[in-house]
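Hi support team,

I submitted a single chain yesterday and got back a structure, but I'm not sure I'm reading the token output correctly. Could someone confirm the output below corresponds to the sequence I sent? I've pasted both exactly as they appear in my results page.

Thanks,
R.
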Amino acid sequence: AYGVPVEYPKAENMYQALKQNGAMNTSADIPVGALVFWHWSVYGHIGIYVGDGKVIHTGVNPKLKMKGIRESPIQDVTEVLNGYNTAEGYKNSYLGWSHPPKNWLV
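Hi R., thanks for writing in. Yes, this is the structure output for that exact sequence:
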């Protein structure tokens, strides 16, 4: 994802575009390298699946956010974001996954 063209101002915008194009998946069989999406306020959140139930992402826990990019279990990210989304009424944060856009592949 590093150095790819920026097309969307927020993760939520990218999720909506991929969803409209039928590119979002909700199966539990996530391939390595897939983009994993969560609902988080109006911004959304994206991780890159690295296998073994883990994603690389920038973090969502305010106490750890300053530590930058890291690897976390998908379930940990989902649980933290589910907690953040309670202001809207309970909403499951996990939205699904998609293969990266073709213009990201080199």
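A quick pointer for reading it: Helices lie at 11-20, 74-84. Let us know if anything else looks off.

Best,
Support desk
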